[in-house]
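G., before I forget:
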Amino acid sequence: MGGDRAPDMVIQGAEVALERDPQLDFILVGDEARIQPLLAKTRRLKLKNPTIVHTDKSVGASDKPSIALRAGRGSSMRLAIDLVGDKKADCLVSAGNTGALMAMSKFVLRMVPGIDRPAIAGIFPTLRGESAMLDLGANIDCDATNLVQFAIMGQIFARTVLGVERPVVGLLNVGSEEQKGHEAIREAATLLRDIVDMPFTFHGFVEGDDIPSGTVDVIVTDGFTGNVALKTAEGTSRLISQSLRDAFRSSLLSRIGYLLARPAVGQMRQRMDPRRYNGAVFLGLNGIAVKSHGGTDALGFANAIGVAADMSRHGFLETVTRELAAAGLNKTNDERKVVATA
Amino acid sequence: MGGDRAPDMVIQGAEVALERDPQLDFILVGDEARIQPLLAKTRRLKLKNPTIVHTDKSVGASDKPSIALRAGRGSSMRLAIDLVGDKKADCLVSAGNTGALMAMSKFVLRMVPGIDRPAIAGIFPTLRGESAMLDLGANIDCDATNLVQFAIMGQIFARTVLGVERPVVGLLNVGSEEQKGHEAIREAATLLRDIVDMPFTFHGFVEGDDIPSGTVDVIVTDGFTGNVALKTAEGTSRLISQSLRDAFRSSLLSRIGYLLARPAVGQMRQRMDPRRYNGAVFLGLNGIAVKSHGGTDALGFANAIGVAADMSRHGFLETVTRELAAAGLNKTNDERKVVATA
């Protein structure tokens, strides 16, 4: 169990998730001596009598992925991933070190055949509801094939987790005209336009302001751009909240005004609450792994658990495998090379 | 004169700018028959008796840059650029087609020796005040040398327009650790760390949320990432304003609360007003050209005029030339090649 407030936040998060979804079962991986007393204080979770896999070894928040990969055997993170790899768990949720979680998950779970690289996907609020974006930082550089694979996984994610019937997918660019942007994006657009009979609609290019306006259900981009866009949106949101707080505090009248408007403003805050959108999902791995924000609380962690449970319950992995095959894209990179050489 | 509401908005913008800064002089380029009656209605501008350069030719909003370059001779945009090229004007402000303005400005004004490519810079509000970012979309791909040149121009822009004494410069990346990001960014960081005796401080890498928090005075990035970040911030700002408006309208109490808090909220809106940050500046050209948003009003256009006047008055171009020479970076690309081959 990792994260700034683990194991307390993790146990409490599981309790909240169970309150929302009583069918969940948990395996708790970490220091049993610390977990037991926290578990005893829960209402629902202790009644489920969850298995505790004990270890006092953990991956440090600043450990490099390569170090974690070599020295992380027996750590709580690694044992949790092994449980998914051994099909003893359907999915895993961790609030630990992102790089280490990605490296170890990739090593243990391997990739879905046909997907070359994993991507990190996230959900965010828009004017129209919610959308998903990927990649949020796993791959600095992406070629056209990577982007097409992200698009296919992203639309399945939108169907299984956001419940969108026929997701609309857009490629993030600096303009909507066909000749705009990097070669990889333009090529990906051509490939996506050629895919037919798939349960999603390719919208074409979208721009940065289309992310919060919800023009499409799924935004596809490379990990560099996606990471910058996500953090810019988070930062802008904080800047406006802070300025609004200052404005409300600036006079007696505005303080009274705030008191009257508080329930309404609170509703809006709740809709924008980052905890609601907690849970960065690793897509492309042959197993379901969700990374919770390290600094979140029980409510945020419960949301990450909800995302993992939704993916598992709605057969995310099976759907990816099936739709890649249907699109003729279920070849590994090596198999594609053989075909290209033959 | 271009833009959605030209020439009215342009003439009124000049009037507002003159009200703020009575020392300004204007040359108005466009259709004299439309300009004259609008000019007659102004108070200050008509007293300045501005020269009108007549043309009824203009560049269309959707004209491709290459077309504008070939067929744009005699257009209001081209004539205005020529005035700067011929040193008859100190700077130009246009609300017309961005791509055409960039292509024609580059062709007529040429580059400052030592700068390989022009960059588009903009100003935006932060938690700490205001910062500048470049490139916002002129160059999709940038190498380390481009980024270093942008950093040098960006800090001079922050000194001349934002009045920052010793600007702090950051490179936009997906993490602050040295090994993060593209090779071009890492190499640019090394080059910037090696530059000494310059009137700015290199902070290192910054992330997307550092843009609105104002961690640094100048954010340097390639035009693809900069464009996505800018538009994501604008869109997020609109999403929150819209949600806030909905919240205030949701009940009678919140409507009353809004009435009481309105002056305070208005103050905050004013601080965030996109018109305050209107004016995308083309840096690296051997002349001062500022692009106003096409959809802005007189207030926004006046701000763009203010930015151009500040740059001209504080000797932006001379400072760029001097500081490039001081850093030994005043070679053109061809000269550098000769040195490298010799």
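The mean pLDDT of chain A is 91. The radius of gyration of chain A is 21 Å.

More on Monday.
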